[in-house]
Amino acid sequence: MPTESTTWSAAQVSAQYRAVAWLRWRIFLNNFRRKGSTGDLVARILIIPFAIVVIIGPTFGAGFGSWYFAHHNHLEHIAWILWAAFCFCQFLNIQLGQPGTTFDPTQLIRFPLRVSSYVSIRLFFGLLSPANFAALLISIAVAVGVGIASSNLFPIALLALLVFAATNILFSRMAFAWIDRWLSTRRAREIFTGFIFIISIGIQWLNFTFNPAYNHHGKGSVAKAADAAAAQQNLNHANNLYHYIESWLAPLPPNLTANALALAHNGRILLGLAAIFGCLLYAIVFYAIFSWRTHTEYRGENFSDQANAVTTTAPRSAAHATAFTGTLQQPTTTAGRSNLVSILLSKELLLIRRNTGLLYGVIFPIVFVLIFSIKFVARTHAPWAFPASVIYAMMGISPLCYNVFGLEGTGVQFYFMSPTSMRDVFVAKNIGSAILAAIDFVIVYGVICVSASVPSPHLTIASVLWAVATVLITMTIGNRRSISAAKKIEPGRSASKQASPLSGLISFLVLVISGGFGALLYFAEVWRGINWLMIPALAAYAIIAFFFYRSGLNTIDKFAFANREQLFAELCKQ
Amino acid sequence: MTPAIAARGLTRTFAGGFKAVDNLDLAVEPGQFFGFLGPNGAGKSTTIKMLTGLLAPTEGSIEILGQDLLANPVEVKRNIGVVPEGMALFGKLTATEYLTFVGRMYGLDASTTKQRTSELLEFMGLADQQKKLIADYSHGMGKKLALAAAVIHGPKVLFLDEPFEGVDAIAALTLKNMLQGMIARGATIFLTSHVLEIVERLCSHIAIIDHGHLVAQGSLDELRAGVQARLTTDGESASTAHATLTLEQIFLNVVRSSEGAATHTSQELNWLS
User: Fold this and answer.
1) Across chain A, how many H-helices and E-strands are there?
2) Which residues 421-480 on chain A approach chain B with CB closer than 8 angstroms?
3) Left, alpha or beta for A420 (phi > 0: left; psi -120 to 50: alpha)?
């Protein structure tokens, strides 16, 4: 069978680009054809205002800050804004992930693509991320801020900031291309998770230490003076630190860009352009490293743990065969329900132990509570700190309940093949989640006791009842969503999401509504003096939640059976 | 004559030093229907991935139709079609959309792509399912679509990793006829399958890999003669040695010889009813 053409024309190369762009578009459109996808679309639309606030706020802030520095002839201080923008974009990349997960672009290497086309496509597929969008907007805002303060600087500011945006974006693309490479092994994933964990804690600590909102000394002129002195002291510390490390930061893109503006402002245009060129060199180096990584992908590289984990098959020995026989001699079909649940629970606990990402989700809110209580609650002794901390800690557990099969992949079919009811499967999974919630609750209690004061028995009982009710409601809805809107989690991909967008939104809303109910009761007690209301109301809430949960469990087998194809389609896909 | 597929010293080492494929030499002549066999984990899929550019060899060279795969990957990929182990389908596309995409990626113009897409869907019996998302296809339908995608550009060399797995008997017959037609028109096919009857019926030449090493290679008659000679030497009964050996017998003999008889004791699972 002969091939159609003998030369690979430029038109065919451009047809390949169009084909990949069209593929992306069709995959996006076809996403809405599947059951449940409309809900995800709605969730995405609802999330947009929050995303806009997250991106627009810093954009306006950067624009205003750059205007302020330019107006006061301190253009070199724009480097601070650019460092903040750089860190913010990397933070967004980590929190929101890179796009392009509709399919794995490395699948394209089987086609006759030129390596340059492949590199371009890999770059293109990662460009439309919220972080990159933020990087571009913030950079433009800085240029506009400078332009408003000094209109003759606008052209060079725009050039410098566009180069900076490109550098920032290419750094992210480069870094994440390598991170995905490193994340191909479980050990590397654990190290990376630990790294992110430490960075996140560091950011929270800085926030509580230096944010004036958490460092009030009270009302009155003396307190205000103390606040101002503390703020000035923090600013001085930051300034000293900055000056200390400035010589190391000077040759890096944010400082080069800011220096370019300062030099241009002083009439040294050529030196300013040289600084911009220096920044451009970084962009080129980042692109080259990204390109190096994608070249390796193009040549064929196996990312999977499975391939790396293959070992030579040992001959099956008689001893092994005996042990195998021994295990199966206890037929599971005769095991009682509690025995089945305990077997399933053992497996859940094994998975939890080996899932660093999950543990991170559980531990992170606790650490936040710890910092919060040390920095803030210890000083104010606010009685609502304990229930508020419990609500916050729940944020780590709650999303996990909405995609309980996410990590199990094709293994989920086992539950439908084995003599196990889905009710038992969910009970085991829910007990696992409840254990995590209980551990979180106890630790939060301990943290508040040590760092602030022991919560009153009244408030402790109320918090326990609230947590029980909320966990039960979360599990009831989460169990359904785990079947109807499962999301395959790929631990080796940094862009892999933990749950469907709609599930994430529902998880958040459940906490907000349930937390709002608890807060309403609390303030009714504090402000209106209705002391008898909170515990009975929350007890009733927990009882209703329990019946709600039980009713959900009683019909979960039927629901799972009716929706199993949808579940398999998502989790068993290649 | 330049081999259609030539691999020399092909080696793939994974993390931890495990060699999935070790110093493999392979030569497949143009027009051959070549069967590549081996037990599970022997290195078949790793070899196919390396031969098709999906996996980089740690050592060794690969030439397809005289072109060095590592030096000219684009030229090589233009002339080959692949049905990989995992089928590599895009679940969120329909069959028509997928074949259109693949055709365009292989440089076919829009009208040729459209015509071939239509013909292939009809041929594979997927015409009435063309608007369904691939994610909703059965495994067998997915295999047929993966095969359609592998041939849409008229490849000269076709690599098939378990192409008949999950395909119904009627479709399998259609596919076999199509593949034999390709061979008759001069194409080369490299096939791995665990269904030895199919390999025996289709393939003129066979190679057997075990633990990453090539342990046998030749035409079916050459392999049969080799095994018969070994059986005679080992003192097997004349009737066994001289009976016409099936591919299954040849395969088992070669693999057992390679691994050593001790690894294949006939264990009995007495607890099974």
Assistant:
1) 23, 0
2) none
3) beta
At A49, list the tokens: 């205002």
Q: Is residue A470 part of a domain?
A: yes
What does the pLDDT read at residue A561? 84
CB A518 within 8 A of CB A387: yes
Percentage of chain B exceeding pLDDT 70: 93
pTM of the model: 0.68
Regions in chain A scoring below 50 on pLDDT: 1-5, 100-101, 304-335, 495
Q: Which residue of B has its CA nearest to A31?
A: B92
Interatomic CA distance for residues B192 and B161, integer angstroms = 5
pLDDT of A332: 40
Task: Look at A18 and B104 and tell me if their CB atoms are within 8 Å.
Answer: yes
Q: What pLDDT was estimated at residue A310? A: 39
Please give the residue range of the domain that contains residue B118.
5-262
Count the domains in chain B. 1
Domain-located, residue B114: yes
Minimal-distance CA residue of chain A relative to B110: A15
Of A27, A113, A300, the CB nearest to B56: A300
Q: Within the 322-381 window of chain A, which residues sit less than 8 Å (CB to CB) from chain B?
A: 325, 328-329
Q: Please, what's the b/e burial string for B212-237 (b: 16 or more CB within 10 A of its CB; e: otherwise)?
A: bbbbbbeebeebbeebbeebeeeeee
Nearest to B101 among A19, A110, A325 (CB): A19
Q: Which residues of B touch A115 (CB under 8 A)?
A: 73
Whole-number Å distance between alpha carbons of A88 and A67: 20
For Cα atoms A46, A48, A54, give the angle at the middle one, nearest 5 degrees.
130
Please indicate whether, in this complex, the C-beta atoms of A34 and B16 are within 8 angstroms of each other: no
pLDDT exceeds cutoff 50 at B192: yes
Confidence of residue B150 (pLDDT cuts 50, 70, 90): very high
Q: Which of B41, B86, B187 sits opposite A310 (nearest CB)?
A: B41
Average pLDDT, chain B: 86
| Domain count within chain A | 2
Q: Is residue A148 part of a domain?
A: yes
Q: Which chain B residues have a beta carbon less than 8 Å from that of A316?
A: 263, 267
ipTM of the assembly? 0.70
**Is the CB of A112 less than 8 angstroms away from the CB of B75?**
yes
Q: Which residues of B touch A112 (CB under 8 A)?
A: 73-78, 105-107
Identify the CATH number of the domain in which residue B50 sits: 3.40.50.300
Q: Which one of A263, A289, A304 terminates a domain?
A: A304
Residue B266 three-state SS: coil
Residues of B in contact with A301 (CB under 8 A): 55-56
CB A471 within 8 A of CB A437: yes
Domain assignment present for residue B192? The answer is: yes
Residue A479 lies in a domain: yes
B143 in a domain, yes or no? yes
Q: CA-nearest residue of chain A to B270?
A: A325
Confidence of residue B229 (pLDDT cuts 50, 70, 90): confident
Give the structural domain span for A402: 335-571
A266, part of any domain:
yes
In a domain, B273, yes or no: no
